[in-house]
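Practice set, problem 2.
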Amino acid sequence: MTAPPTDAAPVTAADRTRLFRLASVLLTYPDAELLGARDELRGAAGRIEHPRLRGQAEEFLAWLTGTEPIDVQRHYVQTFDLRRRSGLYLTYYLHGDTRKRGMALLILKQRYRAHGLRLAAGELPDLLPVVLEFAATVGPGEGEAPLRQHRRGIELLRAALADLGTPYHLLLDAVTAVLPELTDADREAVAELAIDGPPVESVGLDSLGPDLLASGGLDGVGLAPYPTCPSTEAR
């Protein structure tokens, strides 16, 4: 008889896939369809065999399903759309408002296309739920490469969510637990980014308008790089 896994047991490839797929769903905007799928979500969490990862997913779901939908939706917008420091778009952490970000988005999109993953209309390839879906679909190696590439940004996001005290930090804690450990250089870079923020350049930002630029750019109005829910839902 095989003993059940313990918290110290290594995470299996199957559990990594289950976790990435579940987190990719739970990190999307909690619309009526998502909130109405509580039984399916609980079932998906229950299939994660690793006890610590399963416990984190179930604890998050207890909050999600036990909170009024309007409050969950408001919390999501306040967490991810109104705070640039906890945005879900990973290239921002690495490249900030620079032209390098556009190239990074293009490379990601080409990587997805090579594996048959098509983005929905208006969906950007660096959105964390999309990156997690790609990892779950393609698997270790090529599928998880974008997660490894943006490991520092994911750590910054995890720390920001922990500081906010939001239940969403449970999902990031679980995801980062199965990613490669941060190196000393990673930790140093994360600490610097936490203080200085991502790189910024004004070249190519004229289209944002003089009023926005005069207020300090996007950071000046405290917005995430892109909204993660429809404007009608945000209102």
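Problem 2, part (b): a different protein.
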Amino acid sequence: MPSIEQYSQADQRYLLQLARQAIAQGIIGHQPVPPSMAAVSTALQQPRGCFVTLTLDGQLRGCIGNLEADTTLLEAVWRNSYLAAFKDQRFMPVTAAELDRLNYEISILTPLTPLSVKNEAALLERLRPGIDGLVLTDGGHRATFLPSVWQQLPQPERFVSQLRLKAGLPADYWRDSLRCDIYQAIKITEESAVADES
């Protein structure tokens, strides 16, 4: 299992501050500019996939991310924060009035690991509730649930069927061409970033 200890308290605070700055810049009409790599830890300069989840009063307000490590963690958090606030098509763009009430959650992803499974029963047996995120891919259909989604969908059967629906597939879909990948996530929140200071 990946560990939050890979990222210091200073790293975690910096990433959360970066997320807030990206959205604050967007509120005043500025496009996100990649942050400087100067004086940041090596951990933040590594290529990583990540998702940024925004909530407001306990309700989802935006969530955007990248599964593949196509840029540094620093740049991914900056970009995905902006996109979650202003480009998640499920929501209207975040407003200035909402800015101070947003809660941020950054999920840093491990590389995808392919699962070689012949049927749904084998997939359900391999999945670890609360630990594994899952990506389903078939043709032009692709979707993922982060490990945190297990909190809403704790039964593996429902977790998988709802993910298929998210991918635009029937809830009971299975073909040999269906690709299954898992990953884990290190979750950074306001609470984790101050855990050692309380």
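Answer key, part (b): The chain has a mean pLDDT of 92. The two ends are 25 Å apart (CA to CA).
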